[in-house]
Specification:
flat; about 425 residues; 3-stranded antiparallel β-sheet; alpha+beta; 4 domains; 15 strands; 16 helices
């Protein structure tokens, strides 16, 4: 039978719509896969499925591009992703005597800290993976194993193309990853070969939730409000109001000329926006509804607050707060690290230990991964001077000089590995305390 076009198929079928129930298959991103016939070609559900968009109650299909065009949402994504990306991620070794040191001799140290693969820096890799975990709920990378220094080790981490990996549990309750590339045959990887980093919140224990899924109504409403404001500015009446004369009365030619001159000269231009003018002859001024009266600005601020709640980013860091923080910016940074980034740090550390250390290394419990969040918690030079002064103080010092020097990228000193010794009291001080 010769192939026919969709339009010919519609005509041959009498333009009847298919009533077949949707067929549920593997779950991708929490949405059941549906089957569509040629009769559903204009279905909004099909457009959503093919385009990756999410329908909102505001009538706006929220796509990834639309979400990132929202300035508050983009700022939150950039803030979290780049904050994670710029922080050093180190592999440490815990000694039998309780001391810790960076495991620079381990091959994984270089992968995490310097170069995860041949085309990405550590910042680029972590920023990319973090953004995928925020937008999709999950980020995946191929773990390249090899033998180095006579032991198996991770040599590289290669990010998979987004939305090509689906995790599942097999009959033995072991995680498998189904890889469906854009071209070529599908493959199945065991857990050892895939680095899976996801949102800490999960509904099935395997996949993390996507912020685009949970914030779809907020983003849809924000987009609808922006469109309404844009149309008001582009096509709406921008006049301040209309002059209405009482029934049966009209302005004389002299009154009309004076009123028109007053409008054009005394009340025209941006400097006189919102001003009123003197009427005569019984005229009545009727003001028009403005964007302020329609509470468009209040609605936009509300959407920013909702985005801040979904992402855990403090609203002032989204550049949408009228408050002047001044010296309180350090407390704001501490809030951001504690209530937003800390959970992501732990997710990163445990995901790396699970996927990039051998079972023997995990059982030995000597190697561990740690973010250095101290770079985000540093205050001003004055605050640091006061802190390190106390750390090196005579009453209960807990840092050695070389540790302080390392915080400022200064070379260690030969005499900088000992705790400061208490200074002997002066004789006068001892006599004064005795009396």
């Amino acid at each position: 039978m010769a192939a026919i076009s969709p339009d010919e198929y519609r005509r041959a079928s009498g333009y009847r719509h298919s009533v077949a129930a949707p067929v549920r298959g593997d779950r991708l991103g929490g949405n059941g896969v549906k089957s569509f016939t040629a009769m559903d070609i204009d279905s909004p559900v099909l457009r959503e499925f093919l385009g990756g968009g999410r329908s909102s109650a505001a009538g706006v299909t929220v796509t990834e591009k639309l979400a990132l065009s929202n300035s508050a949402f983009f700022r939150a994504m950039k803030l979290i992703s780049t904050s994670v990306g710029m922080l050093p991620l180190h592999l440490h070794r815990r000694g039998a005597d309780g001391t810790t040191a960076k495991a620079k001799d381990h091959p994984l140290y270089r992968v995490l800290h310097k170069r995860p693969n041949s085309y990405q820096t550590a910042l680029e890799f972590k920023t990319h993976m973090q953004l995928c975990a925020l937008l999709d709920g999950n980020a995946y990378a191929r773990v390249v194993w090899g033998v180095k220094q006579g032991r198996p080790a991770v040599l590289a981490l290669l990010p998979f193309q987004r939305r090509t990996i689906t995790p599942s549990l097999n009959a033995s309750n072991e995680v498998e990853f189904r890889y469906r590339p854009s071209s070529g045959a599908a493959q199945t990887f065991i857990a050892r070969d895939v680095f899976h980093f996801r949102h800490p919140i999960s509904l099935d224990g395997l996949k993390g939730i996507s912020l685009l899924d949970v914030a779809v109504e907020t983003l849809g409403l924000a987009s609808a409000a922006e469109r309404a404001l844009a149309k008001m500015l582009a096509k709406g009446v921008m006049a301040g109001g209309a002059v209405e004369m009482p029934v049966g009365e009209e302005l004389s030619p002299e009154q009309y000329d004076r009123l028109k001159e007053s409008l054009n000269e005394d009340n025209g231009g941006a400097d006189n926006a919102g001003t009123w003018f003197l009427l005569e002859g019984g005229a009545k001024a009727n003001p028009f509804t403005t964007a302020k009266d329609s509470q468009t600005d209040e609605m936009r601020k509300r959407q920013v607050e909702d985005i801040a709640r979904f992402t855990d980013a403090p609203r002032p860091l989204l550049m949408m707060d009228e408050t002047s923080w001044g010296t309180g910016i350090r407390e704001l940074g501490l809030f951001f690290v504690t209530y937003c980034l800390l959970g992501w740090f732990v997710a990163w550390e445990q995901a790396v230990e699970r996927s990039c250390l051998t079972e023997a290394e995990q059982d030995a419990d000597e190697l561990y991964v740690k973010f250095n969040e101290g770079a985000l918690l540093r205050g001003s030079l004055k605050d640091q001077a006061e802190f390190f002064s106390k750390a090196l103080g005579n009453n209960g010092a807990w840092m050695v000089p070389n540790e302080v020097r390392a915080n400022f990228e200064l070379d260690p000193r030969d005499d900088g590995m000992d705790l400061p010794k208490p200074v002997a009291k002066m004789a006068s001080d001892e006599a004064l305390s005795a009396s």
